[in-house]
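Changelog note: in this version the structure field was regenerated for every chain. One regenerated record is shown below for reference.
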Amino acid sequence: MQRYLEDLALWGFNLIVYGFDIHKYENIEDPAAQAMLARMDAIGRTAKQLGLDVGLGIAVNDGYAHSPEAMRADWTAGHDGYTHELAATIIWNSAPINPARKSCC
C-alpha cells in the first residue's frame, strides 16, 4: 500500500479518501474492526507523510452487523414512493424515521 500511495503522490494526487464499513462488524470492539482501524491508521499516516490529505467517508445510516431490526430501514415495496422491490440493498441501513419504532434510542 505504501508504494501505491507513493505512486499516487508522484502522479499528482493530493487526497486519499477511504471508508469504514461498519456493517461488516459486530461492534467497534470487534477484533476485525480493530484490525481494520489499525490498517486505516497506517494508511492515513503514510499518506500524510507523503504530503497527501486524508479523508474518511462513511454511510451515515450504516449499522453494525447485528443492529436491532427495529432500527433498520424498511426496503419493501409500496411505501415511501417505492413501487418495486429493490434488486439489492444493504439490510443493515438504519432509518432515522421509522413509524414502527416506538422511541429513538
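Spot check on this record: The chain is about 25% helix and 10% strand. The mean pLDDT is 81.
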